[in-house]
Design a protein that fits this description.
The chain is mainly alpha-helical and 569 residues long. It is built from 21 helices and 10 strands. Strands 1-2-3 form a 3-stranded mixed β-sheet. Strands 6-7-8 form a 3-stranded mixed β-sheet, covered by helices on one side.
Length: 569
C-alpha cells in the first residue's frame, strides 16, 4: 500500500513535468515529506506494535505478566558520601537482620525465574518470528538482574545539592555464608549467647537421639512381650527394660556436655541391651517357626491320636492350674516408666508384675525383710472381716498345690511313655521351651511358675537410681504360718469357727494309706493303675461347714472328685 502511494506521487510529478509546470517542485516536496513521515513515524510504530504483541505472547507462554527483575532489590540511605563507599553487606544485614531471610527468599525466586527464562532461550517456537531477536536481548538483559541480590546505597545532602550512589552486590554464596554462620553478624555478647544456645541445642538433640533409641527398644519390647513362648523370657525382658531405665534414661538427663565420655558408656550399654532384646526375639521366633513346621505337625498328629484316653486328665490338671491363679491372682500388666520424666520423652513399658506386689518406702522395705509375714498381713490382708474367707482360700491353696505336685510327676511318667514317638526335635526346643513343647502336644502344663506363688515387696528410689525387691514364696510351711497369724487376729468366736486341721502333706499321705490308695467311689487304685492321680476329698465340703479332719476326709480318684465337685454325695 505504501509503495502504491509512492508510485502515484511520482506519476503525478511526471505528468506535471511534461506540462513543464513549475509547481512540480511543490509536489515533489510534499512527496518527500510524506516519505519521511512514513519511514520515521508510521513504520516504526507498526513494528513496535508487532514486537509488543510478540512479547505479550511470549510472556503468556511463560506464565508471566511481565519481566520480574529489572531493578534493584533494596535501597538504603546513608548519612555521608564517604559511607557510600564504606558500606558493606555485614553492615547492611546487621542493621536489617530480617532482610537476610528475605534476601535468601528473593534469590531462590530469582533462581527459579532464571531457570524458566534460560530453558525458554534454549528451546522455544518463537525463534523465527519477526523481532524475536529484540525480545531475546531483553530476556538476556533481564537475566543479569537474577544473579545477585543488589542494594542501592544512596547519600543525598540535607540541601539536596550533593548526591552519591553506589551498588552493593551480594552473591548467593555470600548470603548462604551469612545464614550458616550467624556469628558474622553478631557482637561479642551476642556471639557468646549464641554459642551457649547452640551447645544447649546440640545437647538436647543428642539427648533425644538416645531417647529415641530407648523408645525403639521399649516399643519392640511392648510389641513382642505377649508373643514370647520361652518361659522366663518375659522376666528377662522386664529386667532388660528396668536396666535400660536405670542405666540410660537417668544418665542421659544428667550429662551436661555433648563431649562427655558418658555418651560412650551409654552407647555401649544401649548396644548391648538392643542386642539382648534382638536375641530374645530371634530365639522365640526360631521356636515359633518350628511349631509351625510340618515336622512338629507330624509329631502332634501322632500324639493326638494316642492321647485320647489322657485328654480329660490333662484338661482337669489345666483346670487345677487355673484355680491356683483364681486363688492367688494372676500376673497383671501396668505401664511403667521408672524415672521422673516431666516432658514425657520416654514411652511407658508394659511391665508384668506378680499379682501381690507392694511398692513400699525404704524404711518399710527394711522392716518387711525382717518380719515378712507380719507385713504380708498388713499390706495384702488389710480387711479383718475378710479373714475367714481368706483363710479358706489359703487352705484350699495348700491342697491344690499338693495335687499339682503329684500330677506333675504323673505327667512326667506319661512323657516317658511318648518318647518313642517324639523324634527329631531340635535341641534348642527342649533347652528353651520344653514345657511349651509338651503343652502344644496336649500335655497339661504344671510348670514351676504355676507351683511357685509368692508375695513381693519392692522399693524404688525417687530418681529411680536404686531398685530393690524380695519375694516371700508361699510354701506349705509359709502358708501354714500365715493362716496361724490370720487366725490369731480373729475374735474368739470367729477363731473357734475357723479352727481346724490343715490339709498338710502328712495328713494327705495318712488318708491315702488308710484307704489303701483306692478311690472310695469307683474302686480304682494305684495298684491297678500306677499313674492314677488320687486326691483327698472333704466328704462334707468346707464351703458347707465341713472340717479338715480324718472322719471327714476320703480318698477319691481325680475323675470321681471332678464329678463330685462341692456336692454332698
Amino acid at each position: 500500500m505504501y509503495i502504491h502511494c509512492l508510485l502515484n506521487v511520482f506519476s503525478v510529478g511526471l505528468a506535471y513535468k511534461q506540462n513543464e509546470d513549475k509547481s512540480i517542485y511543490v509536489i515533489i516536496g510534499i512527496g518527500i515529506i510524506f516519505l519521511v513521515v512514513l519511514f520515521v513515524a508510521i513504520i516504526p510504530a507498526i513494528m513496535n506494535k508487532k514486537e509488543k504483541d510478540l512479547e505479550a505472547e511470549i510472556l503468556q507462554s511463560l506464565g508471566l505478566s511481565g519481566w520480574m527483575y529489572n531493578a534493584f532489590d533494596a535501597l538504603v540511605n546513608v548519612k555521608s558520601s564517604q559511607a557510600v563507599s564504606n558500606y558493606t553487606d555485614i553492615k547492611y544485614f546487621t542493621e536489617n537482620r530480617q532482610k537476610l531471610g528475605e534476601a535468601a527468599a528473593i534469590l531462590n525466586q530469582k533462581s527459579a525465574y532464571a531457570k524458566l527464562l534460560n530453558d525458554f532461550l534454549v528451546s522455544n517456537t518463537f525463534t523465527n518470528r519477526f523481532r524475536y531477536s529484540r525480545i531475546e536481548q531483553k530476556i538476556r538483559s533481564n537475566l543479569t538482574y537474577t544473579q545477585n541480590y543488589s542494594v542501592v546505597v544512596n547519600y543525598t545532602s540535607p540541601a539536596g545539592r550533593k548526591t552519591n550512589t553506589g551498588i552493593l552486590t551480594i552473591t548467593p554464596n555470600r548470603i548462604n555464608e551469612l545464614r550458616n554462620n550467624p556469628a558474622l553478624l553478631m557482637s561479642k555478647t551476642e556471639y557468646n549467647k549464641y554459642i551457649k544456645e547452640q551447645e544447649k541445642n546440640l545437647l538436647e538433640k543428642k539427648q533425644h537421639k538416645y531417647y529415641d533409641r530407648v523408645n525403639r527398644v521399649i516399643d519392640t519390647a511392648n510389641d513382642i512381650k505377649d508373643k514370647l513362648v520361652i518361659h522366663g523370657d518375659s522376666e528377662k525382658l522386664d529386667a532388660l527394660i528396668a536396666a535400660l531405665f536405670d542405666r540410660t534414661v537417668n544418665s542421659i538427663k544428667k550429662i551436661k556436655t555433648i563431649k562427655s565420655e558418658e555418651w560412650d558408656v551409654i552407647d555401649k550399654f544401649l548396644s548391648n541391651n538392643e542386642h539382648e532384646v534382638d536375641e530374645i526375639i530371634k530365639r522365640n521366633k526360631q521356636i515359633t517357626d518350628y511349631y509351625n513346621s510340618p515336622e512338629f505337625m507330624q509329631i502332634k498328629s501322632t500324639c493326638d491320636s494316642l492321647m485320647s484316653t489322657q485328654r480329660e486328665f490333662n484338661e482337669y490338671i489345666d483346670e487345677k492350674a487355673k484355680s491356683i491363679q483364681n486363688l492367688f491372682g494372676v500376673r497383671v500388666t501396668r505401664d511403667e516408666t521408672v524415672v521422673e520424666d516431666e516432658y514425657n520423652y520416654i514411652r511407658p513399658y508394659k511391665k508384668s508384675i506378680t499379682p501381690f506386689t507392694a511398692e513400699v518406702s525404704a524404711a518399710v522395705f527394711a522392716s518387711a525383710e525382717n518380719n515378712p509375714l507380719d507385713y504380708i498381713v498388713k499390706y495384702f490382708y488389710p480387711n479383718k472381716s475378710m479373714f475367714p474367707e481368706q483363710i479358706q482360700k489359703l487352705q484350699l491353696l495348700v491342697e491344690e498345690l499338693e495335687t499339682l505336685k503329684e500330677a506333675k510327676q504323673i505327667i512326667e511318667n506319661y512323657k516317658k511313655d511318648y518318647q518313642q514317638y517324639i523324634v527329631g526335635v531340635p535341641s534348642f526346643i527342649m533347652e528353651n521351651d520344653e514345657d511349651g513343647f509338651y503343652s502344644r502336644l496336649g500335655f497339661a502344663n504344671v510348670s514351676e511358675s504355676v507351683l511357685t506363688v509368692a508375695y513381693k515387696f519392692s522399693y524404688t528410689s525417687g530418681g529411680g537410681m536404686a531398685q530393690r525387691s524380695f519375694t516371700v514364696p508361699m510354701t506349705e510351711e509359709t502358708i501354714v504360718e500365715l493362716i496361724k497369724i490370720l487366725e490369731s487376729k480373729l475374735t474368739f468366736s470367729a477363731f473357734a469357727k475357723e479352727q481346724r486341721s490343715l490339709m498338710t502333706s502328712k495328713l494327705r499321705q495318712m488318708i491315702k494309706e488308710r484307704d489303701d490308695y483306692t478311690c472310695k467311689y469307683c474302686g480304682n487304685s494305684t495298684h491297678a493303675e500306677p499313674n492314677l492321680l488320687l486326691e483327698i476329698d472333704h466328704i462334707i465340703p468346707v464351703a458347707k461347714g465341713g472340717f479338715t479332719e480324718e472322719k471327714n476326709l476320703q480318698t477319691l480318684c481325680w475323675k470321681c472328685n471332678r464329678h463330685k465337685g462341692s456336692r454332698l454325695v
